[in-house]
Write a structure and sequence with these properties.
166 residues; single chain; dystroglycan binding; AGR3 protein; AGR/TXD; Glutaredoxin; Thioredoxin-like_sf; 3-stranded mixed β-sheet; 5 helices
Length: 166
Amino acid sequence: IMLHSTLALSLLLIAVSSNLAMAIKKEKRAPQTLSRGWGDEITWVQTYEEGLYQAKKSNKPLMVIHHLEDCQYCQALKKAFAENEEIQEMAQNNFIMLNLMHETTDKNLSPDGQYVPRIMFVDPSLTVRADITGRYSNRLYTYEPQDMVFLIENMKKALRLIQTEL
């Protein structure tokens, strides 16, 4: 009987401590709700207006990701985006980042329609870079999970274009 209760007690302790560990972990990540799964190490701005302000102030391009929670293509892209170390690192260090689940009033962000997922770049001069497009002629600013190398190229292009145009 003694052994039985010791075992029960240690199992109880293990359960409590792992729940506590999970609670602590959750606590630590709580402020990062703006990431919505696109990358918890990235600093995200909350609104398009804030993004434009930060881009101008920091001289970094703004990257705007339009997506919806119940869109399977968005989910697949989000997973590939979040798992790609080079993208995460560039997003954190070289870009002002915004992911939106609603459209903005800026029509320049939907030059060929309001579809998701859609990724657009805005220069620190506050010019929407409609010239930085993906691989698909019917949806110019969409990317698929297998297009991460292409997205990296476009991120580098957005950075290069700032340097050459200022």
